[in-house]
Amino acid sequence: MPKPFSRAEVEEFFARLKKHDPEPRTELRYVNPYTLLVAVALSAQATDKGVNKATEPLFKKIKTPEAMVDLGEAGLTEYIKTIGLYRGKAKNVIALSKILIEQHDGKVPKDREALQALPGVGRKTANVVLNVAFGEPTIAVDTHIFRVSNRTHLAPGKNVEEVEDKLEQVVPDPYKLHAHHWLILHGRYTCIARKPLCPVCVVRDLCRFKDKTKELPAEKPKTIKRSSRAGASVQRSAAKR
Predict the structure, then answer these.
(1) Catalytic: 142?
(2) Domain match, 87 and 177 both
(3) 19 falls within a domain
(4) Which of 124, 173, 211, 222 is catalytic?
(5) pLDDT for position 1
(6) Any idea what the CATH number is for the domain that residue 95 is in?
(7) Which residue from 53, 124, 125, 222 puts its CA 20 to 30 A from 109's CA?
(8) Backbone angles phi and psi of 42, in degrees to 5
(9) What pTM was estimated for this model as a whole?
């Protein structure tokens, strides 16, 4: 059984991730809390890249729940049909838009219970919206964060709920606001699923993974241009998802 992280090690772990990427941002593109909610709801079992491709033209025209309802389910389907499970997602987006109008004055609620009451919105989506749109120190556990937390032994757990609970316990308060993004980006671009890029990992000496890779793949990781919410472009070295 790997030795648990000490408080000092957890502090060092996040200090290094912060130094590597001081202001991490979601890779989903959005223009306001409502479009963020829609984008996150659409991202289930889909890549951010695929969602962004579909929402770029959509969000040029649709920025409010009222406009989305006017567009209608059939109209929305035409924009998002390249995304997996698009029919069910279109139905949910129209339904949640109607609820926002009827129950929340057309605004995205800053409340977990109210968010999770919306069609197609689970705990992970609610956590992302609370964190990104409202600056709440929530941690949304996806497949990348689940893998990183277990592989490094930072916050091991059998399911996402266990991992989230452990991360809430171990992540120091000064790092909680951005912990979600640091971990997801680390999992997406460095601690990748098939063969982690251990030689370039900034926390490799802290990581408890016993089968660390000793060399990089023959093919160089691709460079991905990532745009922040403000529109600034960041070059990020990345392997294939």
Answers:
(1) yes
(2) no
(3) yes
(4) 124
(5) 83
(6) 1.10.340.30
(7) 53
(8) -75, -20
(9) 0.86
